[in-house]
Design a protein that fits this description.
Length: 515
């Protein structure tokens, strides 16, 4: 009886709060404060959905960087949210073996079941070692560099030139997502089909399927487990879309796998020194005497890894590039400084010229201010905004918070870069200078303060390639084009696995006169 009246009181208060929000168009309070009977903090979550990231940032700042989000009773949605570098260092490094992705993470990411992303313990260690060897392989590095350059020349430049000539507006975020999709597809599968970045901007079935899977995985994170499982069972809503997308991906990937297997068969014994090698080929050729836990004979193993590598490389770099060009438009002095550095260090190239005027390996590392501006972008807008882990055994974090075995911990990467206690009073300002020393060199920043690429033993394996790709694109655009942001847009992050711009990034483009 008592609990029924508690529910009644909760519902009445929530209705009043919602009414207040709609009548006065502003929230009663700015961040999660109240855990309601039965419903936990879900009403607050609902009221602040339109500014969820900033609400969590404010709450973290007011609670010494860690707080417990309470979900509804029995929904299994309680989670400890932290942005505390001491906790993060403990979880991702000093007590790494106790913090795993966990069984619920694997359920949520079931489309990636056999991939490195979902592995823990010994299986993760073996697979990470194998993937690291493949990514560091000279053949893959060569393929990545030549693919990025050719996609700039044959994909990006013609599209930017076309937009400039037509004088129309384009969504630069969409352009970058297409660019990184096409680039990743070649370096991961060895296939250059379909090409999503062209003047026609075609809708590509596999890119759409990929988006549906990512969207579905995100909703599984925020819905009660029983609800999405039920939706999956009866095949409705986003779960239905995910199943259909999985089938598209199975079909497309089977084509890539058989093409690579054919190619390997054809080239057997012909050439032992590999000029360039995509990651799918490296997976098929995996030495199972060395990596006994891996199963390259199994097509599902290959398919899940292709999908996970696309996930790792596509939206991450596209997101960082989008926020980078927006921040430059807001900070023209930074843009001028980057252009001056490029002009000083790189020989001038004209847009899309046949041979690059610089050697990426030799010259790009010298662009320290550009490097700093990219890091500063990802500090404020980390492409992967959060990371989820689960303790194997109950533990106490350096902040004093107790965490039970199998509970959920959310490392809120988005907040880490915004905390005044971590980055100083100017934390919200875009200042690439904070990454450079007085002599202009790159300053060392502890990985647990700058988490965009994760930290500790599970740090991103594609960081070097991602930085090269972003620098090549940035140089090409800054040397040859002026980007003008279209008026009347709102710039805010969406809520997804990746930090995209919710409404896109519409710009007009002018070609710069070469001096
Ligand atoms: C700006 C671009 C990128 C950012 C911000 C980024 C960020 C991250 C983050 C935060 C993680 C940890 C994910 C987790 O454990 O849940 C991660 C892992 C990983 N990343 Fe990246 N990434 C980027 C580009 C790339 C690229 C281009 C590749 C591939 C060539 C790549 C390959 C990987 C792999 C294989 C892992 C899994 C490591 C492991 O679980 O041991 N990443 N990345």
């Amino acid at each position: 009886m008592a609990s029924i009246s508690l529910i009644g009181v909760s519902i009445t208060i929530i209705c009043l709060l919602i009414l207040h929000r709609f009548l006065f168009k502003k929230p009663l309070y700015r961040f999660f404060r109240i855990s309601w009977p039965v419903l936990g903090m879900v009403p607050d979550l609902f009221l602040m959905l339109h500014r969820i990231y900033d609400s969590i940032v404010e709450r973290l700042e007011s609670t010494e960087l860690t707080f417990l989000f309470k979900g509804p009773w029995f929904a299994g949605m309680d989670m400890l949210i932290t942005a505390d570098p001491a906790n993060i260092h403990y979880i991702l490094n000093s007590n790494f073996s106790n913090f795993v992705k966990g069984s619920e993470f694997i359920e949520v990411f079931d489309a990636f079941e056999c991939a490195l992303l979902t592995k823990d313990s010994v299986a993760w260690k073996t697979q990470r070692k194998a993937t690291q060897v493949m990514i560091n392989h000279q053949g893959f590095q060569r393929l990545s560099m030549s693919t990025i350059r050719s996609k700039v020349k044959d994909g990006l430049v013609p599209v930017l030139n076309h937009i400039a000539e037509e004088g129309t507006t384009v969504d630069l975020q969409d352009v970058f997502r297409r660019f990184t999709f096409d680039t990743s597809l070649v370096t991961i599968t060895g296939c250059d089909d379909p090409r999503s970045l062209s003047i026609e901007m075609p809708e590509v079935e596999s890119a759409k399927a990929f988006d549906d899977i990512v969207e579905g995985v995100f909703y599984r994170h925020v819905k009660p487990r029983l609800l999405w499982k039920l939706q999956k069972l009866i095949g409705v809503g986003i779960e239905k879309k995910m199943t259909e997308a999985g089938a598209v991906f199975d079909r497309v990937c089977a084509k890539y796998v058989s093409a690579r297997k054919e190619e390997i068969k054809r080239s057997q014994g012909i050439n032992s020194s590999v000029e360039s090698e995509d990651l799918l080929t490296s997976h098929i050729k995996l030495d199972t005497t060395k990596y006994q836990l891996l199963d390259p004979i199994n097509d599902k193993f290959l398919r899940d890894n292709v999908l996970a590598l696309l996930l790792a490389g596509r939206d991450t770099t596209a997101s960082a590039l989008t926020w980078f060009f927006w921040l430059l438009s807001e900070n023209p002095n930074v843009m001028t400084k980057i252009r001056q550095e490029i002009d000083k260090i790189l020989p001038r190239s004209s847009s899309g010229q046949e041979k690059p005027s610089y050697d990426p390996m030799e010259h790009l590392n010298k662009l320290v201010y550009l490097h700093a501006a990219l890091c500063e972008t990802m500090r404020l807008y980390p492409p992967v905004p959060l990371e989820r882990v689960s303790p194997l055994e109950s533990d106490v974090l350096p902040s004093g918070h107790k965490v039970e075995a199998n509970s959920k911990i959310l490392i809120f990467i988005y907040a880490v870069g915004k905390m005044r206690t971590i980055w100083g009073e100017d934390a919200l300002e875009f200042k690439p200078e904070r990454w450079n020393s007085e002599t202009g060199e790159l300053r060392h920043v502890p990985a647990f303060k700058f988490l965009a690429f994760n930290a500790g033993p599970r740090v991103c394996l594609g960081k070097h390639i991602a930085m090269m790709l972003m620098k090549i694109v940035a140089v090409e655009i800054l040397q040859n084009y002026d980007i003008k942001v279209a008026k009347g847009q709102k710039f805010e992050p969406n809520t997804s696995l990746f930090l995209r711009m919710k409404h896109g990034f519409k710009v007009t483009i002018n070609k710069r006169c070469s001096s």
